[in-house]
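[job 0412] stage=complex_fold ligand=magnesium ion status=START
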Amino acid sequence: METLKIGVSGVRGIIGDSLTPDLVLDLSKAFGTYLKGGKVVVGTDSRTSREMLKYSVFAGLLSMGCEVIDVGIVPTPTVQLMVKEFQADGGVIVTASHNPHEWNGLKFVRSDGIFLNAVEGEEMLTFFREKKFKPVLWDQIKRIKKNKSASNLHLTRILCQVDVPLIKKKKFKVVVDNCNGAGYLMAPKLLFELGCEVEVLNNDPNIPFARVPEPRPENLTELCQKVVDYKAKIGFAQDPDADRLALIDENGNPLPEDYTLALVADYILKTYEKRAKGYQKMLVTNLSTTQAVDDVANRYGAKVIRTKVGEVNVAEEMKHTKAIIGGEGNGGVMFPQIGWSRDSLAGMALVLEYLAFSGKKISELAAEIPRYYMVKKKTSYETQKAAYEAVDILKERYQDQKLDLTEGLKILGDKNWVHIRVSNTEPIIRVVCEAASEAEANERCDRFIIEVDEVLKTLA
Ligand code: MG
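[job 0412] stage=complex_fold status=DONE, emitting structure tokens
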């Protein structure tokens, strides 16, 4: 299996196998070359390999004449916000997001705090492949500045955008599971500032992840139990770089991960008139996000725009259209009044504000979201070329159905859809099905996985 993934949303690989300090050094030289020197904010998540890779990033950037601002272990959205805050030319985040501990990687951020898009990423990777780096002379090497204010600046930005007194009055009991990840400092601090009684799980960034890091329901059993034991109003779970947020209701039931965006969108669009300030009544999300967000948007006459999968695609569309809300169905809420980045902390604050504003329980708010069942499966492939060919064959096969070909193949039915695409981050083909019942979603997803495998076999 190809474990090194170099793609639009960054680079990921397994430490000691495909992702090495040498590789990271060259990638960082390439990014420094792409930026023509300049100021770069660097942050990491909590993985054991963070320092080994961070110093390679520093060396690569400094050798190309960059100035480095080291913000330490912080959430991915914090680095994105700090690039703008410090008027930097770019940012690097050392993280493999929701992948297991043995993985790590890099994400590259441009001056507006959004990740490099496909064209920019390709330009940067051309420098990486050609390796014609021009190191600066000794007297042009700049310094590394440590900055410890990033977390607080990010927190302030969130607190300025939510109704703190309204939330504080409720004195919510909450449990948060930080997965020993980069949200360890900010999540408890934010919840404390919002007047919550907080029980914190898995909050030591110096030990490996205590659970499977992807914040999916099956990985959150400890948190679900704690919510019940503690009689909390809500449970929050983050992934290791704190851009994805999952919710647990007051009965200890995990909500489907796409409910995070649907709930926040419901609240933001409901209160659009009081917050508009130049933003459009519009929701931007990717092709693989639940149709429940369309139903929610319809309640308020808001337009929905669907993009390719990948945070950068949603962020660029939000920036372009000035949409008031957006994000991804994997628990990634993007609220532009805080930043064009998926931000689990902003998500927590907005969900708590919705609870306070509505006076309802989280299970009651969730019950107002139309229920669909989404099943996500994946299948591995031998070569990327075969993977894309397989999707093309299926496009032909289903051409007389209602399709969206923005990315891969999306077949649109009545209250159901299937989206088949080659992943940007892992060597797999993803098949996502949504339908009105779990059985139907499962059956359709299995059927399409078998079909994809059969096509792949003919190409082997
Ligand atoms: Mg993540």
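The mean pLDDT is 95.
[job 0412] exit 0
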